[in-house]
Amino acid sequence: MLTARPHSFTARAVFALAFCAFVALLGPGPRMANAQESREILPLNQVRPGMQGYAYTIFAGDRVEKFDLEVLGVLDNFLGPKQSIILVQLKGPKVEHTGVVAGMSGSPVYLEGKLAGALSLKLGIFTKEPIAGVTPIEDILSPPSQNAAAQPSTQQFALPSESAARTGFPSGSALEPIETPLVFSGFQPAAIQQFANQLQGYGLVAAQGGTAQPRPEDAHLAAGDMAGMVLVQGDASINSACTVTAVQADRVYLCGHPFLSLGNVQLPMARSRVVTTLSSDLASTKIVNVGGSIGTITGDHLTAVTGKLGAPPAMVPLDLTLVTTEAGSPKQKTLHFEIVNHPKLTPLLVAITTFSGLTQNSLYGEGTTLHLSGEIRLQGHNPVQIENTFAPGDSLSPDGLPIRDQAARGTTLRVLVSDADLLNRASRGFAFAGAGSPDGLDQLIALLNRERRNDRLYVGLFVPSPTLLWGDKELPNIPLSQINVVDGRPIPGSVQILRESLSSESSILLGGPVSGVISLNLQIR
């Protein structure tokens, strides 16, 4: 005999049912809809003109939005041999208003509900229709080898206007990579402008942005989210920002085109959060804040930037301490930065960050003299000593200084009154100018630490006897017999011979940058 009993619900069960009903009323959010996309991919050989599809990106906040598109055709061998591009037209009120947006590169493109590729290229400027190129998904998930990616194609970097005119393409009609915003936080436009040529040479678009506090969910990436490379972090930051194409376990694929074609790298990866999208007839772009580090960028190749979720790699610390004296009491301000460790990027980033840290300070001005002292610490080597003085707009051309007696009858001496740079060149020849190559890092450090200071006036006395330069060694007044033995080395580029030797030198501290030269020939009788 069956007896019906009334159901008994605990308070926890009632709360769970109420929560489920609330979620059901809300419906799936954009991120949930994105997560439910099929993991199937659509091969390039199945793409046909006229196919209807859609893509995901963020226009503001963390909301991944969907917009429609239509396939116009396939451009075979566009990026290179067997590197094709799908040409699409974007549709919908937002994309028709903004056009193809800087930072949209990497947006996942779906055709027939399957992942077909990532937005990566844009066609023209001031165009009436938003037409874009899509990197096929097979090329993104299996990027070319480092060797292939290291050889940039003509589409990877913006050409100077004079060079672009010689390509034969009408102005604004070429398919080019969607710009990757290089987000500067804590930098004023005047500081960035000083390095505009170097940045443009890398094909980057400088954009101002900010930073956001790290969140626990930063590493929970999905297709359509924003992420990028961390180049500088700390009291100021420089980061790139693109859209995530796909996430497979701990592997992240983004951008759909190279950042700088660096090949295999180890750079920090961070979450980016979109504040808003700026619509412009010239160049629409996303305004972003950079969030917390979430892993490592491991590859920068022709068809995608790849990363791995987890711990970020170590960076190079840069501390900038500014000391001023006001009313007899010193005041100190310290800025801390961390910069990526990469031979191509680190020198430029150190220059931009240091210049901005100095010039965007209340102590900086045209009437200010800045004295720089510091060191670069290298593990296992002597530190590199830095000592120089800078004064914006100041120059000095001294008339001359007395020279101590030193003579040899019947010879002609040369007296050089100059700044540090010119005396370095006169006494070290091409070794100082960079034609010679030190045999190792220790020799290079030794040369750098012997640099003369630019806040001193130097007087050098040269005698007509040869100097042998061998690596980081300076051998003045060397006999001709020794020169004949050494000059036959298999690598003559590291051995140089100067026709005169620096017999003695003296200097006077002038307290400001010195520039110029006076050369005098003295006949000794």
Task: Choose one word for the global shape.
Answer: elongated
CATH superfamily of the largest domain: Trypsin-like serine proteases
Unreliable residue stretches: 1-36, 145-171, 394-406, 431-435
Give me the count of strands. 28
The CATH topology of the largest domain is given as Thrombin, subunit H
Number of folding domains?
A: 3
Q: Biggest β-sheet: count, sense, barrel?
A: 6 strands, antiparallel, barrel
- How much helicity do the residues have? 10-25%
Question: Total number of helical segments?
Answer: 13
Quick synopsis:
The chain has 525 residues and is of the alpha+beta class. The chain is built from 13 helices and 28 strands.
Characterise the protein shown here.
With 525 residues, the chain is an alpha+beta fold. The protein folds into three domains: 22-166 and 174-315, Trypsin-like serine proteases (Thrombin, subunit H, Beta Barrel), CATH 2.40.10; 317-390, no CATH class; 412-523, no CATH class. The strands form five sheets. Strands 1-2-3-6-5-4 form a six-stranded antiparallel barrel. Residues 1-36, 145-171, 394-406 and 431-435 have low confidence and may be disordered.
